[in-house]
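Support reply, case 0932

Customer input (verbatim):
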Amino acid sequence: DKNDFTQINSPKIIAFPTEGGAEVFKVDYFGRDAYLAQSPQFYKQIMSAIYERVYEIGRAYRAEKSNTSRHMSEILMLDVEMAFIDGLDDVLVMGEKFMHTVIEKTWAEAGEMLTALGAVKPVLSEKFPRITVTDLHALMLKETGEDYTKELDVVPAEERFICEYSAKHWGSEMIFVTDFPWSDAKFYHHQNEKNPEVTDRADLLFRGVELATLTQREVNYDKLITQIGERGLDANNPGLKHYLDAFKYGMADTGGFGFGMARFVQKLIGLDNAKDAELFPRDTTRITP
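Our regenerated output:
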């Protein structure tokens, strides 16, 4: 709020799966196919053209068949979007400021209770370290002998490794992993202009898990149409039409992130499972109470 963000609330029943893929809950919407929102991505982008800076605290739904300590089917997210950015770095700087503020205020207000729970205040550098996906794969291979160089994404073992490495060698328990392969990007991601092999995306890692994905978005209408086609999607799908209409007459450069609250609370306090940070968690086997 102090940084001129306006809070919005977007629908959770939508006409097109935001993130695509199979990890989506399809619902019968009066005889039509609809989906539970995987994120408010489309809506927060559109609203950033009006308010310039927007955020939302709301539920997101992921049909991931993963029974792990980090996955749930229904999650609480803080989503942020900023217009008139000069590049991905503006988003990363906002992410750094956000995390510093949250942790400092939390400890100032509840440090005694957190200590009683066994929580340890995170050690953070002013500017979080950054490492590319390629360099992380290489460092992992060098230090551990484990070879993930053919992986497009960062695997959980690498997330744990680089967080421990960063804390020990770079003095920060939070780190950005950058330069993800363009071949694995979402259609609304921005292709890096200097190196088209990578996307303008970073993941924020903390104590072994990913808390947020931060990206610059593609705002050029023709480029969006091309990228939709390249990923095997239909730009004429009614669920995409109104989203794409927002870009026809020009859109400021935008970027933002989605921040998983339960994972953050889990790692901040030192819980074994993200489900322990959720009041009524939902996973592949639990739908009650």
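We compared this against your earlier run and they match. Two observations from our side: The two ends are 34 Å apart (CA to CA). Helices lie at 41-51, 88-116, 133-144, 156-169, 221-230, 238-245, 261-269. Please reopen the case if you see a mismatch on your end.
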